[in-house]
């Protein structure tokens, strides 16, 4: 159904200045959903998510399945508030609405949901859900009579043609925390679980990911694909495959290798050819091909760290429980670096995923010391910057449940040593398989 501006402008004009949620539900929501392309029998009001009741759920009907009748497999959920609910960034009303929507999106009856919307009829924001990962697909946008047509049309285009891939930058400003090992083994376990995966080695100085897979670095091809508008990244993709022992099955993933030419060019020279959005734009066509795109980002906060973070939907940050610098650098990235990118990127992504402890055995005493360090970091950022790090360090912590658990991938010698045999540890060792399967279930697969 084609939306015209007349379908929503009258509704906006009818809304009182301080319209309640009930009034918005009566006057604004029906034409809003129609503008998004849903008919009345494709919308279920007061949908039971299994973790509370969301205002609306919607899905296109199929010939033998009317969503209003079956209430099964919802595609998008919508939560509306009254106009008095302040949706300005960083306000409590806005944060509470986002938290509520995310709770619904991860609820048992919403496993098929791919999108979530919050609105108070003065602002609207679209969120994308990919497995367990939830991230903004738009900023929280003001809506009025002048722009409502453009905003809703852009939202409709997104929900009708979603990108297939979740793009993950594996990053920490501190080196030596296992970013490359994490990237390789996440790719390995995701491909083992049947996902189509692309890995991008963007640490051109180290080349570790490329060489750990027994591949040779590029000698200018990746560079040309990045700087030349006529070249596509798919032209430099290679395949890594592994034959499972005692079977005929092969598994693997695709790889964009590191490029030696890039290491020969100074960063000041590169900035003349590469913009912050270059990798993001070059990866865009591939987001409709792969289920996951994993980018191994170098430490520091220079151009070649900024490009993969800008390209990402979410950022995964390995840390070490016994490395104060890795924890502090994760905090800096979450509170300073990512907001810089979010401000410049049109959709407001990427978001940081909760940290995890990587590659070290942790005794109860060491865990206590690590938690004390994390507590201090959280407290300092709250006092000095009014930035809440709690969800990024203790994602399960709440008023009713003071849970300070942090996900862990313990040290296991074969995980690191598997690089010498050019095989991801998850392909060769069951214990590594179990560790990383738990990690992807914690962060990515619902």
From TrEMBL:
Positions of the AAA domain: 167-343
SUPFAM superfamilies named among the record's database cross-references: P-loop containing nucleoside triphosphate hydrolases
Alphabetical list of Gene3D superfamilies matching this protein: P-loop containing nucleotide triphosphate hydrolases
Pfam families named among the record's database cross-references: AAA_31 (PF13614)
Record's protein name: Cobalamin biosynthesis protein CobQ
């Amino acid at each position: 159904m084609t939306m015209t501006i007349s379908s929503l402008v009258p509704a906006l004009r009818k809304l009182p200045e301080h319209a309640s949620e009930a009034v918005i539900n009566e006057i604004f929501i029906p034409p809003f959903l129609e503008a998004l392309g849903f008919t009345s029998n494709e919308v279920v009001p007061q949908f039971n998510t299994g973790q509370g009741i969301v205002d609306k759920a919607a899905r296109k009907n199929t010939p033998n399945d009317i969503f209003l009748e079956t209430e099964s497999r919802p595609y998008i959920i919508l939560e509306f508030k009254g106009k008095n609910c302040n949706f300005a960034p960083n306000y409590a009303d806005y944060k509470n609405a986002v938290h509520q929507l995310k709770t619904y999106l991860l609820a048992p009856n919403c496993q098929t949901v791919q999108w979530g919307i919050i609105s108070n009829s003065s602002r609207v924001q679209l969120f994308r859900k990919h497995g367990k990962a939830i991230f903004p697909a738009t900023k929280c946008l003001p809506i009025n009579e002048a722009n409502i047509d453009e905003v809703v049309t852009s939202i409709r285009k997104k929900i009708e043609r979603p990108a297939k891939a979740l793009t993950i930058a594996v990053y920490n400003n501190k080196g030596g925390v296992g970013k490359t090992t994490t990237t390789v083994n996440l790719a390995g376990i995701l491909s083992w679980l049947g996902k189509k995966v692309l890995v991008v080695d963007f640490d051109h100085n180290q080349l570790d990911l490329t060489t750990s897979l027994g591949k040779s670095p590029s000698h200018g091809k990746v560079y040309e694909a990045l700087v030349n508008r006529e070249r596509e990244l798919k032209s430099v993709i290679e395949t890594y495959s592994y034959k499972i022992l005692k079977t005929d099955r092969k598994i693997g993933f695709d790889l964009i290798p590191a490029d030696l030419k890039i290491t020969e060019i100074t960063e000041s020279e590169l900035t003349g050819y590469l913009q912050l959005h270059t990798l993001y734009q070059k990866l865009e066509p591939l987001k409709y091909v792969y289920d996951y795109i994993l980018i191994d980002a170098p430490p520091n906060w220079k151009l070649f760290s900024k490009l993969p973070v800008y390209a990402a939907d979410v950022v995964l940050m390995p840390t070490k429980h016994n490395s104060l610098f890795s924890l502090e650098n994760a905090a800096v990235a979450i509170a300073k670096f990512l907001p810089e990118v979010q401000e410049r990127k049109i959709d407001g992504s990427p978001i940081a995923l909760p940290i995890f402890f990587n590659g070290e055995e942790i005794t109860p005493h060491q865990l206590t010391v690590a938690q004390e360090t994390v507590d201090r970091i959280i407290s300092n950022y709250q006092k000095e910057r009014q930035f809440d790090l709690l969800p990024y360090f203790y994602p399960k912590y709440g008023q009713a449940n003071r849970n300070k658990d942090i996900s862990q991938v313990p040290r296991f010698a074969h995980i690191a040593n598997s690089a010498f045999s050019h095989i991801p540890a998850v392909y060769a060792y069951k214990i590594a398989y179990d560790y990383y399967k738990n990690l992807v279930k914690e962060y990515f697969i619902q």
